[in-house]
Amino acid sequence: MSLLGRLVMFFTRLGAVRALFTRFRFGRRVAMRFVAGEQLAEAVEVTRRLNAQGFQVSLDHLGEHVTDRDLALRARDDYLECLESIAAEQLDANISIKLTQLGMGFDDHLAAESLMTLAARAADLDLTITIDMEEADHTETTINLYSGVQREHRNLGLALQAYLYRTADDLARIAPLRGHIRLCKGAYDEPDSVAWRHPAEVDASFDQLLDELMRAENLLPAIATHDDDRIILTKRLAESRREPFEFQMLYGIRGRLQEQLRSDGYNVRVYVPYGDSWYPYLTRRLAERPANLWFFLRALVGK
Ligand code: FDA
């Protein structure tokens, strides 16, 4: 993350800034560039449109760091509802979940149970689930919960962050469980005791992991980046890959690139977030590209 990105992270964590974004309409207007809507019905509508254009989708019901049992169970139920809608509407989609939304970090056992419930229902419906990777404090537990449920249901995938020093070892550890592995750079502001902080180092790590992933058999590499150089390398490595892989990109980011890849014949899955807990997601999108703050300033003056 750039120095400016870290500054954005710092300021957006302040209560007054959060209030400014979340209490007034312009904050929501900026968020909706990156979020399908606050309701499941809006996300379903966006998914239907993206499917018609040839994209696959991963639906993320926004929320994280839940520290209340009832809210954690409600998050599980919201995801069950999302799975039912995907099946009923015959959408080409799966779901992406954050384990802290299911209570991980507050009650790991509860999160594990909810993940098992979701994986079981998804398996009944012939659907898959990807687990997002969150702050480095949660990596080990996330991998443990993923591994336990993946052994049982075999319909999970996991995001791995190239900026963490540990990720090459984690990839070796989870690869035998198959599933789909989403490789991304990493979106949190981590200390240099656990992560590379310089963009060139993160890119080098990404490329090394990408090379390993694209050679791996019996798992689906999901290459989650909007970075031209990483995409060029993926295409090159794909020439000698016999098994499938997919690109993944975020809703509202580099739409023309998404269309280009799809029309070139690549599988492209769009990550579509929805729900009213959009603030932390928005702050990460602003920190990745502080130029996005212009959207905020324009929304502030009503443009
Ligand atoms: P990079 O940041 O270098 O951006 C390359 C180019 O993409 C930029 O020059 C710009 O044009 C465009 N771009 C990137 N971000 C933008 C933004 N916010 N707004 C506008 N343009 C932007 N992270 C994580 O820690 N855990 C996770 O589980 C996931 N999951 C995930 C799923 C999917 C499908 C994607 C695409 C990404 C994630 N991420 C994530 C986020 C990821 O770690 C990373 O922070 C962002 O993808 C930005 O990195 P890029 O690889 O796009 O490169």
- Which overall shape is indicated by the principal axes computed on the Cα atoms? globular
> From the coordinates shown, what is the CATH architecture of the largest domain?
Alpha-Beta Barrel
Q: What is the CA–CA distance across the termini?
A: 29 Å
How many DSSP helices? Answer: 13
Query: What is the fold named in CATH at topology level of the largest domain?
Result: TIM Barrel
Helix/strand-derived class? alpha/beta
- Which stretches are low in confidence, meaning pLDDT under 50 for 5 or more residues running? none
Mean pLDDT equals: 93
Number of strands: 8
Q: What's the number of domains?
A: 2
Strand order of the largest sheet: 1-2-3-4-5-6-7-8
The radius of gyration computed from the alpha-carbon positions, rounded to a whole number of angstroms, is 18 Å
Relative strand content: 5-15%
> Main sheet, how many strands, which sense, barrel?
8 strands, parallel, barrel
Give the ligands present.
dihydroflavine-adenine dinucleotide
What fraction, in percent, of the residue positions are helical?
40-55%
CATH class category label of the largest domain:
Alpha Beta
Series of secondary-structure elements, N-terminal to C-terminal: HHHHEHEHEHEHEHEHEHEHH
